[in-house]
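Ticket 4471: requesting a sanity check on a complex prediction with NAP. Repro inputs:
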Amino acid sequence: MELLIDGKRISREIKDELREKMTELKARGVERCLAVIQVGSDPASSVYVRNKKKACEYVGVKSLSYEMPEETTEEELLGLIGQLNSREDVNGILVQLPLPEHINEDRILLAIAPEKDVDGFHPVSVGSLSIGRPGYVSCTPAGIIQLLKRSGIEIEGKECVVLGRSNIVGKPMAMLLLRENGTVTVCHSRTRNLKEITRRADILVAAVGKPRFVGADFVKEGAVVIDVGIHRNAEGKLCGDVDFESVAPKTYAITPVPGGVGPMTIAMLMSNCVNGIEG
Ligand code: NAP
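Returned structure tokens:
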């Protein structure tokens, strides 16, 4: 391994650039404001929401926080989203997932105005990405593109394999790599001869949701490996979808877990809040 891709450093670099941009915007009287809605008190969600608020503070984005009780109805939540959609001082609306079971997640995501959809989950945002129009891009895959670019790794013309096809990681990841002129293959649970395909990858993105699933036999010598997975093992230690110890020696570059892809998601959320929809 020649390069350990440092997501902590790169995310800090991005947040510092955004902080500078916010200072310039504020000097011209322009503010940015993110509304974060959490329904219920899932402890993991509370940590994410707290980290998002902290990042807003650091970058200079205002944040509004709505902590709604578990028994909130879908109509009440839709009502709040409707109000926030029509507020001119609110640029971004984020509903922390997962929602309680009695609330239909699709209906909620669809209710957020696409021009405020800083998570990039609205069908209009997803459609815009797939046909190459300006729109918000889902934060984790957008962060991975930044990790690659800021580590000097070229994507154009490369054989890129994405392991996983979820709506929040795998699919938008494939679209973004395609937009960067990679040659993209998407693998999933029904893929045959998986290792033969992943071994072709110059850039392999693992978003399979299974601890240490990707072993050395999945990886070509000199490949770039991006590990999206986050898991906690029995001893409470974090690990990814990639078996780092056996895979790293074969790679040109690899992301660690923690400290790789993880910190990029919030950095890109801040980028969406500050920069808005870019062409
Ligand atoms: P997901 O919704 O569970 O999707 C997993 C994907 O992997 C599915 O497309 C599934 O295929 C595929 N898959 C499962 N088993 C497979 C197998 N044996 N062979 C080939 N493909 C297989 O997961 P996700 O939401 O995309 O997240 C993936 C990982 O990233 C998780 O560990 C998650 O915690 C992590 N994550 C991290 C961040 C971050 O760092 N900020 C953000 C989001 C997610 P099918 O479609 O056929 O079922």
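Notes from triage: The chain has a mean pLDDT of 97. Leaving this open until the requester confirms.
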